[in-house]
Amino acid sequence: MTTSRSSGTRSAALTRDRIVAAAIELLDAQGEGGLTFRALALKLRTGHGAIQWHVANKRELLAAATVAALTPALTSPAPGTPPRVAIQTVALGVFTAIDEHPWLGPQLHTAPSQPAMVRLWEQIGRGVEGLGVAENSLFTAASTLVSYIIGVASQNASNAQSAAPGDKRHEIVGALADLWESLDPAEYSFLRRAAGQLRVHDDHAEFLAGIDIILDGLTAGR
């Protein structure tokens, strides 16, 4: 009887927010493959049925975890925020979120209709509208920005994950820069020229510089 009451108390205290928070911890530690209802039940010290009362299946759980992890990046800008600043803020927020939660990138790529992606599109789209982009170019402009944001952020997170334990970023980047500098100048003149910039670049600064290049193109002539 004591065990039953204890189990009932734990189940009664279970909430959707607790489940999603635990799911994010599992995803951060083990990736999507490590997120199972069995692992989640063990982590929360409850049963599968109690979890599924709040979240029906893994797909729904992943969508909820994605929204929760991205919510800080997708808050509406303060009234009066310039469109360019609003876009930059959202972009950097998503970049940072994917850097902290690498599993977000694949989730956003593979489930474009999920709530987090819908919110991201809306935030970027409003910023593009605010820049005065022509009506017939709004979708293309927003699509370019969304693709750049998710693509670059995901690649950056993937690079960090693929590094061997103990490897330091500056050593990895330095080795790649050394490789570029060693290439045949007749065949790889650009890479040799860019090697110095690669060696000292800052990921966040380069990411935002790319956003600025896109925005400059969208607003050229205005």
Write a brief structural summary.
One of its GO terms (molecular function) is DNA-binding transcription factor activity. Helix content is about 75%, strand content about 0%. The chain is mostly helical.
Description of the structure:
The structure is a single chain. This protein has 2 domains: 2-56, Orthogonal Bundle (Arc Repressor Mutant, subunit A), CATH 1.10.10.60; 69-219, Orthogonal Bundle (Tetracycline Repressor, domain 2). Helix 7 runs antiparallel to helix 9 (138-162). The longest helix has 25 residues, at 138-162. The chain is built from 12 helices and no strands. The radius of gyration is 22 Å and the shape is flat. It has 222 residues and is mainly alpha-helical.
In CATH terms, what is the architecture of the largest domain? Orthogonal Bundle
The poorly predicted ranges are 1-12
* CATH level-1 class of the largest domain: Mainly Alpha
What series of H and E elements makes up the topology?
A: HHHHHHHHHHHH
Domain HTH tetR-type: 13-73
GO molecular function, one term: DNA-binding transcription factor activity
Keywords: DNA-binding, Transcription, Transcription regulation
DNA-binding region: 36-55
Features:
mainly alpha; disordered N terminus; 2 domains; Arc Repressor Mutant, subunit A; 222 residues; flat
Q: Which helices and strands, and how do they pair?
A:
Layout: H1 2-13, H2 16-30, H3 37-44, H4 48-54, H5 58-70, H6 83-100, H7 104-110, H8 115-130, H9 138-162, H10 169-182, H11 189-200, H12 203-219
InterPro entries: Homeodomain-like_sf (IPR009057), HTH-type_TetR-like_transc_reg (IPR050109), HTH_TetR (IPR001647), Repressor_TetR_C (IPR004111), Tet_transcr_reg_TetR-rel_C_sf (IPR036271)
Domain HTH tetR-type: 13-73
DNA-binding region: 36-55
